[in-house]
Specification:
Strand content of chain A: 15-25%
Number of helices of chain A: 18
CATH architecture of the largest domain in chain A: 3-Layer(aba) Sandwich
Distance between the termini of chain B: 79 Å
Radius of gyration of chain A: 23 Å
Strand content of chain B: under 5%
Helix content of chain B: over 70%
Largest sheet of chain B: none
Helix content of chain A: 40-55%
Radius of gyration of chain B: 28 Å
Shape of chain A: globular
Oligomer: heterodimer
Order of helices and strands of chain B: HHEHHHHHHHHHHHH
Number of domains of chain B: 2
CATH architecture of the largest domain in chain B: Orthogonal Bundle
Largest interface: A-B, 56 and 45 residues
CATH topology of the largest domain in chain B: MetI-like fold
CATH class of the largest domain in chain A: Alpha Beta
Number of strands of chain A: 17
Largest sheet of chain A: 6 strands, mixed
Structural class of chain A: alpha+beta
Distance between the termini of chain A: 17 Å
CATH superfamily of the largest domain in chain A: Periplasmic binding protein-like II
Chain lengths: 434, 312
């Protein structure tokens, strides 16, 4: 039996619509919703999760968009990254009339209801505005396809990379003559580099977010060739997972990395010179550029194989609509295509543009230090596929919580793996909410 | 024939006239009660019933319809270690945060009461000021203070020759660190209640005690504290409820992760995670109702304890 609403008064718009409507009204501030007195301009309500450097770049792009589109009234709304955003996204989309286009992580397409909360992107309309499969890296485009249908327009690829501070690395003697960090292969070579840098800084060789260990773990596990599946139980190679976790234990245990460094502390530690290297997402780039540091970036080191790094894509999606509105969809698709074509601005924030004409342009090739790691986007390692997986999703949160113990020594790799297994099995047994 | 009889019947205008008057009076009463009754029903009774109903369904944040699933959510809850772990985290936080929040507030109030009048405004201001800060500001300040490597707390530890502590990333210290922040942040409210109560104690009581030869310590323990008992009961009750509602500072100081190995994920954090991250409103409702029962139980227990003391 399926009921449509909670018990007493089922009449009227219902609680969900009421909540979503209230939320939309709150989100849009006093602007009010619906087509207001915009003087015949088409309203385009955009929701995003970009603050900081990314937020500033999005505003810059929106200003340019508004100048070029006098007929569109763009109304962007920014929410805090992660769950605060996804919560509102789900409720807004469930209401069916909160926004016209929204940003999302490609890894969350399944979890956020592709097909129920999110409508497919009309590929022919997108092609009309100049974006087809040939214009985007195939691995990225395919990530936006669910059950054969395109559900998202990819804006960028972003992934975990290596930052290095030239002063410390030079003193440690780990720079090439051109000022880039030496390439290493295998764990021992990399640990030698860390030991040299540690000597130069007097504190640590490398710093990474120990409260967000999933990114490190998944990068290393994928380098080892590990797979993770969730069909009828957790499919995970214990030996490879332990090898990856043991590396995280070892760098901290040997004093080459701080055993505890949280999300705000990690870039601060790097900036303060406590470590000469940092593993972090490419989006930290503007922080150090603004600080005027002499630093470079290269892909996540190939410790167990190729230089693979965990990452994701920012995409633009169309919410499911209660009532068909071709004009709004057309405006939203045109906006998405415009954002892709102008993503050179976006690349300033460290993200690799998904749109190949921009990614292959001379203008992008000249961007430093983006040029040092941009090829890594071709082999970005997406999170495993499941409704509970992806950026800020439950699996990511569980992994971060149990793996922090490996870094700070409160849990052995075996204990952390057992806890992760239990958490993942529980998520697999949880009824799917979308 | 019937006319005289009818005329003989005494006219009874009263009852019919009285009835509309009473009805008018009761209508007016209803009119006064109605605004509150409607708000109460719409914003408290109905959501509570709706939440209870949702706990028997598989309602999802991302699906418009929901199916009745009987006791499935409740069965799952009973076997979910995360529920009991986070409930324990909340209770532990309440246990470690309530005593200092009451004691520190009392000490600050007594201190303010005793200092020279010229310093009083300054103490009142500085003791109460943190309470006025928004939680985001408080947690931002303390997150930086707790940082290993460059935070002021660890700097002070190292200055006196102690080793650094990874306050927010060690599962043994994270909850205590959050409790310390909470004391700093919210003791001001209890302080205000105590200060008001202290000012209500007449001076002659102290004079009489002094004449009887009571020293400063005796005046505090034999006069001040007994006369503050009712205030203490109120402060403890309010504080217990406030501590049980732990969520925002724990969420912010662990970046929403619940802390290392979920050592700082309170039950409300788990409700938030299952309901909003996991989109499972039905299951989250069941967990909320479990928590609701705990809050009621703690409040009743506390009320019993203190009312017995009052009766003594």
């Amino acid at each position: 039996m399926r009921t449509t609403s909670t018990p007493p008064p089922a009449a009227g718009p219902g609680r969900r619509a009421f909540l979503a409507g209230g939320l939309a009204a709150a989100g849009l501030g006093l602007a009010g919703c619906g087509a207001s007195a915009a003087g015949g301009r088409t309203p385009l309500r955009q929701w995003n999760l970009f603050t900081g450097g990314d937020g500033a770049r999005m505003v810059e792009m929106h200003d340019a968009y508004t100048r070029e589109h006098p007929g569109v009234e763009l109304r962007p709304t920014t929410y805090l990254w992660g769950n605060p955003y996804y919560t509102k996204f789900a409720m807004g989309a469930a209401g069916g009339r909160a926004f016209d286009v929204a940003t999302l992580h490609a890894s969350r397409l399944r979890g956020m209801g592709a097909g129920t909360l999110i409508d497919p992107v009309p590929a022919d309309l997108l092609a009309e505005y100049g974006v087809t499969r040939d214009d985007v890296l195939p691995n990225v485009w395919d990530k936006c396809v669910v059950d054969g249908e395109l559900y998202a327009v990819p804006l960028d690829t972003h992934l975990v990379v290596t930052y290095y501070e030239r002063g410390a690395c030079e003193r440690a003697g780990v720079l090439e003559p051109d000022g880039s960090l030496v390439a290493t292969s295998g764990p021992e070579e990399f640990l030698d580099v860390l030991a040299a840098v540690k000597e130069a800084t007097g504190h640590f060789g490398v710093v990474m977010d120990t409260t967000g260990a999933w990114r490190q773990f998944w990068s290393l596990y994928r380098q080892l060739g590990g797979e993770m599946t969730f069909d009828g139980g957790l499919g995970l190679d214990d030996d490879l997972a332990l090898q990856a976790l043991d590396f995280l234990r070892r760098v901290c245990d040997d004093g080459l990395a701080p055993p505890a460094s949280d999300a705000p502390g990690t870039p601060a530690n790097f900036q303060n010179g406590i470590a000469g290297l940092m593993f972090a997402g490419n989006w930290e780039l503007p922080t150090f550029q603004t600080a005027g540091m002499d630093f470079g970036m290269r892909p996540f080191p190939g410790i167990f194989g190729a230089e693979l790094g965990q990452g994701d894509c920012h995409v633009l999606v169309l919410p499911h609509r209660r009532t068909r509105d071709d004009r709004a969809v057309r405006t939203a698709v045109e906006y998405a295509a415009w954002m892709l074509k102008n993503s050179i601005v976006w690349a300033g924030g460290g993200h690799t543009p998904a749109y190949l004409p921009v990614a292959e342009s001379a203008e992008y090739a000249e961007l430093r230090p983006q040029a040092e790691y941009r090829h890594a986007a071709e082999d970005v390692q997406f999170d495993p596929e499941a409704w509970f997986s992806g950026s800020a999703a439950p699996l990511f949160a569980e992994a971060n919580s149990v793996m922090a113990g490996v870094h700070n020594g409160s849990a052995t790799p075996e204990e952390a793996l057992a806890r992760f297994r239990r958490a993942a099995e529980r998520l697999i047994d949880t009824p799917e909410p979308v | 024939m019937t006319v005289p009889a009818a005329a003989a019947t005494p006219p009874r205008p009263r009852p019919p006239a009285a009835r509309p008057a009473r009805r008018r009076a009761s209508l007016a009463g209803l009119g006064f009660v109605l605004p509150f009754a409607v708000l109460f029903a719409v914003f408290l009774v109905w959501p509570m019933l709706a939440g209870l109903w949702a706990s028997f369904t598989d309602r999802s944040l991302a699906r418009p319809d929901a199916a009745f699933v009987g006791l499935a959510n409740w069965r799952e809850l009973a076997g979910d270690a995360a529920v009991w772990r986070s409930l324990w985290t909340t209770l532990l936080f309440t246990l470690i945060s309530t005593p200092p929040l009451v004691a520190v507030a009392l000490a600050m109030a007594v201190l303010t009461q005793r200092v020279a009048a010229r310093l009083g405004w300054f103490l009142r201001f500085s003791f109460f000021a943190p309470f006025l800060l928004p939680v985001a500001v408080v947690t931002l300040i303390w997150t930086w203070m707790y940082q290993p490597g460059f935070g002021v707390v660890n700097g002070a530890l190292q200055a006196v020759g102690l080793p650094e502590v990874a306050w927010l990333t060690d599962e043994d210290t994270v909850l205590a660190a959050i409790a310390v922040t909470t004391v700093w942040w919210t003791a001001g409210f209890n302080y205000l209640l105590y200060l008001a109560a202290l000012q209500g104690i007449p001076g002659h009581v102290y004079e009489a005690a002094a004449i009887d030869g009571a020293g400063a310590w005796q005046r505090l323990t034999r006069v001040t504290l007994p006369l503050l008992r009712r205030t203490t009961a109120l402060v403890v009750l309010l504080q217990l409820v406030a501590s049980l509602k732990l969520f925002d500072q724990a969420y912010l100081m662990t970046a929403g992760s619940g802390g290392p190995n979920y050592a700082a994920r309170p039950i409300i954090g788990y409700v938030f995670e299952s309901g909003f991250t996991g989109l499972r409103i039905g299951y989250a409702s069941a967990v909320s109702y479990l928590f609701f029962a705990v809050v009621v139980a703690v409040s009743v227990l506390q009320f019993r304890l203190f009312s017995r003391k009052e009766a003594e």
